[in-house]
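Changelog note: in this version the structure field was regenerated for every chain. One regenerated record is shown below for reference.
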Amino acid sequence: MQPTRGNLAGRPPAQQLGSPRALTTVSQADVPIRSRPKLNRLWTTVDGAIADLGDSSRDRRANAGAWVWGRGYDRFSADDRRRLVEALQPVAEADPDPAARAQAIAALVGLRVEGSVDLALAALVDPDWGMRTIVASEIESTGDPRVVDALLDLLNDADGYVREAAAIGLDRQGDPRALEPLRAMLGRERDNAAKKSAERTIRVLEKLASSPGRRQ
């Protein structure tokens, strides 16, 4: 990923979880995100992604969700969005693999599906660190203050990956309320990647806070 909004610092492009529109492998939630392998499959059609969302391979299910998230809402027709939502929802709600489930949740939020924010909020407090990390770093701006509050809580997570992801997620939400908690995080943070993400998000939010019409 490039050192821009959504970057998990120091990761090669195929391994960076939080790029705004980068393909990402998010399978194997037990593997540190900073060292995950490259994608083993790419899609060029919605049909291919839908097929893999129902595949027995957790890698394919997770990577299909990543592809949908990576393309974003505007790249799909209304009919394609409907079909993708039908395929994503069972994965988001009940997939046995935390990474596949998390990536499907992030994709549903990106597709602006009713109820997806509630799924994301539950994922942000899930016991699985990989689940928390993926959803925190990839959740699109929702305008829901509950998301910002949940991400602020994760700045105090015991896991450095999760704290880093929370800082990225707060960048995406664009809420200057996060400035003081992020500054407080810098004073105690020992994880260099998490610290760099927090510093980058602070710069973005400071610009937003000082923009006309955006003061809180």
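Spot check on this record: Residues 192-210 form the longest helix (19 residues). The chain has one domain: 13-210.
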